[in-house]
Amino acid sequence: MESKGQTPLVEMKDISIAFGGIKAVDHASIDLYPGEVVGLLGHNGAGKSTLIKVLSGAYKRDGGQILINGQEAHITNPREAKAYGIETIYQTLALADNVDAASNLYLGREILTRFGTLDDSAMESEARKVMGRLNPNFRRFKDPVKSLSGGQRQSVAIARAIHFNARILIMDEPTAALGPQETAQVGELIKQLKADGIGIFLISHDIHDVFDLADRVAVMKNGQVVGTGKVSDMTKDEVLGMIILGKCPPGATPGPGAIREN
Questions:
Q1: Which of 82, 97, 119, 128 keeps 20 to 30 A from 25, CA to CA?
Q2: Does domain 1-85+167-262 have CATH number 3.40.50.300?
């Protein structure tokens, strides 16, 4: 969690990006500390996904600066983002349905035997280690992932990200298609990641989700940051007021998008 004097994992400063002359993100600044979850909220088109896609390398920013661990980062594509330890878990999860957890973990980075064949036992052994740390109740190592529940699939996607040294995780609507039990399971996974010092940006439409999982929230409206603040310092109604009206409550730090009250 954020502490005085600690260097943020990520600082995005004055990020701007326009599409066809329309500013999708307008001088947005946001930061993230080790072991912290920052929830990013806002209506569709508010700019939250675009801002995060700049961090993940999917979009190239027009202006602004990204610092990773206090050092300026040059991120123009997803490969460069991964080199900084940034991984994105999209709502669609991008898993290969017909193969098992270990094969998904090593998709595109398979372990080979000295004879050049797939080393299934080495991959399964590594998969058991990483899943054991993340989700000790996971047992279905031999099953194709299409037969797994939503929560189990989510844990395979997260395991793949952290196994390859992600320090910064972007989770896009991680509980959107899940029932209450599976949503709780993802909550447990997130707690485990926080304990490992991983920082998480959580993009969500669900304000209850964010209050359950995040330490801080940042609200965007019309491409600008309305405000950021600790979840413990704000009510859900106050955050809704930020999303809908752009009003920044006393418990939050106003951004350029905040409506100033006289």
A1: 82
A2: yes
Task: Evaluate if pTM is beyond 0.70.
Answer: yes
Using one digit for the tens of pLDDT, what is the confidence trace for 191-200? 888 988 999 9
Provide the strand spans (E) within the chain.
Answer: 10-19, 22-32, 37-41, 63-68, 71-72, 86-89, 168-172, 199-203, 216-221, 224-230, 253-254
Spell out the domain ranges in the chain. Answer: 1-85+167-262, 96-165
Which CA distances in Å does 132 have to 29, 155, 186? 36, 11, 15
Cβ atoms 157, 89 nearer than 8 A: yes
CA distances from 96 to 4, 70, 142, 148 (A): 42, 36, 14, 12
